[in-house]
Design goal:
The strands form 3 sheets. This protein has a 6-stranded mixed beta sheet, sandwiched between helices. A 4-stranded antiparallel beta sheet has the order 2-1-4-5, covered by helices on one side. The chain has a 4-stranded antiparallel beta sheet with strand order 12-13-11-14. Helix 3 crosses helix 4 and helix 3 runs parallel beside helix 5. The protein is an alpha/beta fold. The chain contains 11 helices and 14 strands. It is 35% helix and 28% strand. Helix 6 links the parallel strand 7 and strand 8. The structure holds adenosine-5'-triphosphate (ATP). The site of adenosine-5'-triphosphate has 12 residues, from strand 2 and helix 1. Keywords: ATP-binding, Nucleotide-binding, Transport. This is ABC transporter.
């Protein structure tokens, strides 16, 4: 398997070292994989990928693309790696079709092929009627779709997407995930940042979990899930204003996280599941409803993050 990226001990600081965005990050990206970068706001994900596309230089360490430092071949990286950034792109004074067409032409497509791909993408996005609208005059979600389109047009061998499904309605999110998978089946290597962990689970091969600028874990989804395979997720909706009390009453079951105003969640040991149900049904706690289900990738992500924050705390009854 060929390596597309190799990151070694990457550190990146801002403001003369006062803000540490990435700390000693090392990992590889293999040709043909979809790697998801997960992490909370401010974790350092965007900073990391900006170094992978050559928009930022590491403070120390190396980011290599196909065996050579990105910094010494920024032109080649720009030609081969299609990058979708969170920031509004520079094409907003173009019409939607122009943004796609000219990007295709810049990527070396013939006029005919650029037109064909532009038409196909506008159709997939359901935006044929908006072809003559300026990008700055379409909705936030439509702008994002055209942004994704500018990555898709021209068949770049690598795509790096920073939150590609942000701001999109559920149907359009599904469309974007489908397009990402289609491209991947055609051999394109894809690195993406997302907060839609549950949707990403269906699509990514490997996941890198980043927080506080550090790489906490990187592995296949199934391997990461093994970290929680002896656990179940217990989610509870408490009566109004009672979540602190319920958390305290059930503290022996595990570490509780508040996920909404009256919603709490914990990963509990499978062997404690029947005890938990016993407590929930017999202790007359102020609980509206509860569910006990196998954990998903989002729970794995929270678990890895929790482990980092509470390395010494036991979670067993
Ligand atoms: N240009 C900058 N100057 C100073 N600090 C910055 C700059 N860009 C990012 N940071 C800081 O670096 C840290 C990492 O930010 P980064 O944008 O990489 O995180 P992120 O994981 O992409 O977050 P989000 O999910 O919110 O986009 C944060 O503390 C952020 O405030």
């Amino acid at each position: 398997m060929k390596l597309i990226y190799q990151l070694e001990d990457v550190n990146k600081t801002y403001k003369k070292g006062k803000v540490v965005a990435n700390q000693n990050i090392s990992f590889d990206v293999q040709q043909g994989e979809i790697l998801g970068l997960l992490g909370p706001n401010g974790a350092g994900k965007s900073t990391l990928i900006k170094q992978m596309v050559g928009h930022l230089a590491p403070t120390s360490g190396t980011v290599c693309y196909k065996g050579t430092s990105v910094q010494t071949q920024t032109k080649r990286v720009a030609q081969e790696v299609a990058y979708y950034s969170q920031e509004p792109h520079a094409l907003t004074s173009l019409k939607t079709w122009e943004a796609l067409y000219f990007t295709g032409r810049l990527r070396g497509l013939t006029k005919e092929y650029a037109v064909k791909q532009t038409e196909e993408l506008l159709e997939r996005f359901g935006m044929q009627d908006l072809r003559h609208k300026l990008l700055k005059n379409v909705s936030g979600g439509q702008k994002r779709l055209i942004g994704i389109g500018t990555c898709l047009i021209g068949f770049s061998p690598v795509m790096i997407l920073d939150e590609p499904t942000n701001e999109l309605d559920p149907k359009k999110r599904r469309l974007v995930w489908d397009l990402i998978q289609e491209r991947n089946r055609q051999g394109v290597t894809i690195i993406l940042v997302t907060h839609n962990v549950l949707e990403a689970e269906q699509v990514v091969d490997r996941v890198a979990v980043v927080n506080h600028g550090k790489l906490l874990a990187i592995d296949h989804v199934s391997v990461l899930k093994q970290r929680v395979d002896q656990r179940m997720k217990l989610e509870i909706t408490t009566s109004l204003g009672e979540s602190d009390y319920v958390c305290q009453s059930l503290s022996a079951l595990g570490h509780w996280t508040q996920t909404g105003e009256n919603r709490i969640r914990a990963l509990i040991e499978k062997q404690n599941a029947s005890y938990a149900i016993d407590v929930l049904t017999n202790q007359h706690l102020p609980i509206e409803e509860y569910s006990l289900v196998p954990p998903n990738l989002e729970d794995v992500y929270f678990h890895i993050d929790d482990e980092q924050d509470r390395p010494a705390k036991a979670e067993v009854v």
